[in-house]
Amino acid sequence: MPVQIEPAGLADLRRVLADHPRYWGERDLRSLHLTALVQEFGSTCLVARAGDGIRGYVFGFVTPAGTGYVHLVATRDDARGSGLGRRLYEAFAEAARREGGVRLKAITSVGNTGSIAFHRRLGFEVEIVDDYNGPGQAMAVFRRDLRET
To answer: For 45-88, how does the pLDDT look when each residue is reduced to its tens digit (9 = 90+)?
Structure first.
């Protein structure tokens, strides 16, 4: 079944939230799914759509300094291992370039070894930054230059 990556709309956000466990399992990250991101940064909030629904998504934006920040990226449980996460990142990188992005950035918890390994495979540099998310809250910070890829 072919997958099309295209800008997300509010109906897509509602669908993703309704199917939240299929993307995130037991982790409740619904509070990070901000309507304002889809409303205000539609060109960099993307869904991977197929005949059976939304297989994955990436929500992000480009800062005035040219950083394409990936706020959320997820693939549905039945789409994992298919390369869809990589395709979503590639589509986001292209969208970020069109918006003036020159680098990509994302973060995750230091214990999220799956995300850290995934980002390394995509060519991101990883740095553990103490107190990134507040006192005593270290985060893994991913960076990749868009001018080299």
So the answer is: 999 999 999 999 999 999 999 999 999 999 999 999 999 999 99
With beta carbons less than 8 A apart as the criterion, state whether 17 and 68 touch: no
CA distances for 100 relative to 8, 65, 93, 132, angstroms:
20, 9, 10, 26
Q: For residue 110, give the H/E element and its range.
A: none
Whose structure tokens read 């399992």? 25
Q: Which residues contact 37 (CB under 8 A, 6 or more apart)?
A: 45, 59, 60, 61, 71
Query: In Å, how far from its chain's centre is CA 93?
Result: 11
b/e code 42-54 from CB counts within 10 Å (16+ = b)? eebbbbbbeeeeb
Single-letter code of the amino acid located at 3:
V
For residue 90, give the nearest of 109, 68, 108, 110 by alpha carbon: 68
Q: Which residues pair with 56 in a beta bridge?
A: 48, 75
Kind and range of the H or E run holding 69: strand 67-75
Write the pLDDT tens digit of every residue in 98-120: 999 999 999 999 999 999 999 99
